[in-house]
Amino acid sequence: MNPKITVMLVDDHAVVRAGYRLLLSQSENIEVVCEAERGEEACQFYTEWQPDVVVMDLSLPGIGGLASIRRISSRDPGAKVLVFSIHDELVYVLRALEAGAKGYITKSSAPETLVEAVKKVAGGETYVEPEIAQKLLAQTIAGKDAATDLNALSAREFDVFCLLAKGYTTREVADELRLSYKTVGNYTTLIKNKLNVSTTAEMARLAYQYGLLKA
After folding, report:
1. Are the C-beta atoms of 103 and 117 separated by less than 8 Å?
2. What is the pLDDT of residues 142-199, one digit of tens each?
3. Which segments of 50-199 does DSSP mark as H helices, in order?
4. Which superfamily does CATH assign the domain made up of 5-141 to?
5. CA angle at residue 166 from 165 to 171, to 5 degrees?
6. Integer Cα distance of 118 and 94 in angstroms
7. What are the sequence ranges of the domains in the chain?
8. Residue range 149-209 in CATH 1.10.10.10
9. From CA 71, how far away is CA 49, in angstroms rounded?
10. What is the pTM for the complete model shown?
11. Alpha carbons 174 and 170: distance in angstroms, whole number
């Protein structure tokens, strides 16, 4: 009998984690051993539990999903993080993979995709949802970089940028990411300087250009 694949679930919504846990429990060789709702918790619990696979959302309070992936991967280069996100834009996919993720699937994928992805990543493979993989291939063939301007942003700056570009106020960004108003203000200044923009309207234009906003 093969040993069970141990999994840590990272999502800030308890009901969502419950759904993941139920879905994965239907596979005899997968066991959810711990859960986290913040990036900092995920990093701490990873060290304590050493799960085979981390199933992680990108939209997390605290340090955020991208920064959590980078921190876990820097501490353990062999870490196997599978991103499970609502975002299908290539900018998010590329940033997650560059941070150290070994897989990327979206929450709009079929339920069995999560189980398959966990098994593939646990086995040492890289798993990217087929539709996203096709987009990545097309971009590679076309020789385009989906995030040339945005590469200058840190993981947290990128999170703030995306929300501001979508029309969130500074206070709303602070509430969404559970950061202080002042911290978001500081991030906003850094983002504007790095991207050489002066208004949120210009941020929105960049976000639309890179597929982060829909028409």
Report:
1. yes
2. 555 555 678 788 888 988 998 998 899 999 999 988 889 999 999 999 999 988 889 8
3. 65-75, 90-99, 111-122, 130-142, 155-165, 170-177, 181-195
4. Response regulator (3.40.50.2300)
5. 85
6. 19
7. 5-141, 149-209
8. yes
9. 16
10. 0.79
11. 6
